[in-house]
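mind reviewing this stuff:

——
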Amino acid sequence: MMSTTKPAPGKPRARPSFYFRYLVEPYLYISPAFVLIALVMLVPLVIGVSYAFQSVSLLRPFDTGWVGTENFQALWTDRKFWLALKNTFWWTLGSIFFQFFLGLGLALLLNTHFYGKRLVQALVFLPWAVPTFLSALTWAWLFNPTIGPLPHWLAALGILSEPYNILGDPDLAMWGPITANVWFGIPFFAITLLAALQSIPGELYEAAEIDGATAWQSFTKITLPFLAPMIAITVMLRTIWIANFADLIFVMTGGGPANSTQILSTYIFTTAFRKLDFGYASAIAVALLVLLLIYAVILLVLRRRLVKI
C-alpha cells in the first residue's frame, strides 16, 4: 500500500536551488584561489619530490630515469650531508636563541613609555627593511680584517690575539653569518611579541601590584603565560625560515672555509646549480622538508597545549 504521508504544514520542501546557493556556490567563488594555489605550490612540490626518486643530471643527459631510493641511500654515506645537517642545527639554534631573547627584551622595552620611543622603535625595525644581499655585504665588510672594524675591536678587547679574517677560520666562521642573521631577524620577534604584549589586559598587572607581586612574579605569572602561544608559533615559523635561509651564508662565506658554514639549504643550491644534479639535490630537499615537518608538528602540538592551559 502506497504511503500518502504529506509534508508537515509550515515546513516547505527545500528546493534544489537552496542547496546550490548555500552549499555549492561558495566553493565556486573560491575555486580560482584553489586552482592558483595548486598551480603555484602543489604542482612544483610534487614535481620536486618526484625528482628525488629519479636520476636528473644535466651532466649525464642520457643517464636519466627512475632510480627509486638510491638518492636517499647515498645520503647515508655522504659526509658533506651530515656535516651540513650539523651546521644547520647550530646555525638555526644560535640564530633563534639570540633573536628571540634580544627581540623579547626590545618588545618589553617598547611596551613601556619613555622619551624617544618612536625613534627607538624605528631603529629597531630598520634591519627588517634592509635587503638580505645588502645586509650580507655590509657584515662581510665589518668582518674584513683589513678595512672592517670588528676584528680590530675584538683584538683590542682581548677576545682575539690579533685582527684576522674570522670568516676564514673554520672554527669561528659560522659566527659571522649568525651575527648578521641575529641583527636581521630581531625585528620579527620584537614586532610580534610587542603586539602580544599590548593585548594583555592592564588590569591583571594592577591586581598583581595590589597583591604585592614583584616585577619578576608579574613577568612569570602573567606575561609569559599570555606570550607562550605566540612564542611557540613565532619560534616555529622563524626556525623554518632560518633553516631554509641560505642568502647570508652564500654571500658571506659561500659555505666555506672547508664546508664549515655549509648548511642544507646552501648544499641543495650548490648540488643543483653547480653540480647540476637535480635528483640528488631534490633528495636533500625532501630530507630537510621531512625534518622541518616533524619539528612543526611538535611545536603545533605544544602550542595547542599551551592554549588550553
Summary: The mean pLDDT is 85. The radius of gyration is 27 Å. Residues 48 and 282 are 6 Å apart (CA to CA).
